[in-house]
Specification:
The complex is a heterodimer of chains A (164) and B (197). Chain A has 164 residues and is α+β, with helices and mostly antiparallel strands. Chain A contains three helices and eleven strands. The longest helix of chain B is centred in the middle third of the chain and has 23 residues, at 79-101. Chain B is globular. Chain B is built from nine helices and no strands. Chain B has helices at 11-23, 29-47, 52-69, 79-101, 127-136, 141-151, 158-164, 177-188, 193-196. The chains are: A alpha+beta (164), B mainly alpha (197). Chains A and B meet through helix 1, helix 2 and helix 3 of A and helix 2, helix 3, helix 5, helix 6 and helix 8 of B.
């Protein structure tokens, strides 16, 4: 463009591809200048789940205590995590079954409880057996959490996010 | 030219569908919505001058407000606008409270810039981003806010965004609008821009 366009005419012009490209560059620039904290989305999702369920949040009692999500490195993924809330204890063990999937085995102190696994894009439910055991296979690797509804309509319990 | 827009899928449509699915009992609907719209809400809060810690609180509070009010929101198509307006109001209230708590006796508008790092304070990767930041930061505060948000929205949402910001509806989309026009003209007048991008 040799002569700069008139401001008013230009402002009233339709959006073109160049505009959309500049907006994309603005987005890239802001991601660099003012990046959103990486864990914010997970934290917001978690806070929202707790509010929607009127749930109690279980605490992690082992093997590691971390604020926010429990993340481990590829070398030392948490194989086993224990959560407690009131009278309920849940222990989960994660066994990788491939690069993308894992099996989550669990045991909890309220047999017959409904266990809901919340993956980023889907949820599913199993019922713990008479001894409190439950199994979830084909779980996609990533951050998940469990919602446990003890038999008999007690307050649901939600675990902090943990990595599978 | 590569496809520039992050998504042409309207966030307003996405929010409307998610709220409807949520009310039908789909527990995966809201988490997905949070994933898609949280970056936009982050920039709503930051553009209001909230510092990063405060902006995080604002985003989380905004989502909790949605949980509280979701059953009263009858116009699902307006949920996106509602979220932006709520985040903006929360951010304003939070920065105001913070200011009072610190009893800073400053110019009433000075706090609005507290969250903005000056170009000299930020390390920006890439020549294009550096050039762009220089021109962007010279725009009016209102223009910066508008461009910040529409950069994180989809093209069909420009109208919702401008309405939520209380800007005249005609100011963006389907026309370019003055803010984007100013930035484009500044870039056109900058001989080093073509080489930088």
């Amino acid at each position: 463009m040799s002569t700069p366009p008139n401001m008013d005419t230009f402002a009233d012009g339709p959006l073109d591809d160049e505009d959309l490209m500049v907006l994309q560059l603005v987005r890239d620039m802001l991601d660099s200048v003012d990046p959103m904290p990486a864990e914010l989305t997970e934290r917001a999702k978690f806070a929202m789940s707790v509010a929607l369920l009127h749930a109690e949040v279980a605490s992690i009692v082992g093997p590691e205590l971390t604020a926010g999500a429990v993340r481990s490195t590829d070398y030392e993924r948490a194989n086993s995590i224990t959560f407690v809330s009131g009278g309920l204890t849940v222990m989960v063990t994660v066994e990788p079954t491939g690069t993308d999937t894992a099996t989550v085995r669990g045991w909890l102190t309220t047999p017959g409880a409904e266990v809901e696994l919340r993956e980023p894009a889907r949820t599913r439910e199993v019922i713990a057996d008479n001894e409190g055991r439950f199994l979830l296979d084909g779980v996609r690797r990533g951050l998940v959490h469990l919602v446990i509804r003890p038999d008999g309509g007690a307050t649901p319990v939600i675990t902090p996010t943990f990595e599978v | 030219m590569s496809a520039p827009s992050p998504s042409d899928r309207s966030l307003a449509d996405l929010a409307a569908a998610a709220v409807a699915r949520h009310l039908e009992g789909d527990s995966a609907a809201m988490p997905l919505l949070v994933e898609r719209i949280t970056p936009l809400l982050w920039h709503v809060a930051r553009a209001q001058g909230a510092d990063p810690a405060l902006a995080e609180d604002v985003v989380q509070t905004t989502w909790l407000r949605l949980v509280e009010h979701v059953e009263n929101l009858t116009d699902h198509q307006a949920v996106l606008k509602w979220l932006i307006t709520t985040a903006k109001r929360e951010a304003w209230a939070a920065t105001h409270r913070q200011r009072q708590a610190h009893s800073v006796d400053a110019d009433d508008f000075a706090h609005l810039r507290d969250g903005d790092a000056g170009p000299e304070e930020v390390a920006i990767e890439g020549a294009a981003s550096q050039h762009l930041w220089r021109h962007f930061s010279q725009l009016s505060r209102q223009c910066q806010e508008l461009l910040r948000l529409i950069a994180f929205a989809a093209r069909p949402d420009y109208r919702s965004v401008s309405e939520a910001l209380g800007m005249p509806v005609g100011s963006i989309g389907p026309t370019r609008g003055r803010c984007l026009a100013k930035l484009r003209l500044a870039l056109l007048a900058d001989p080093s821009w073509e080489g930088a991008r």
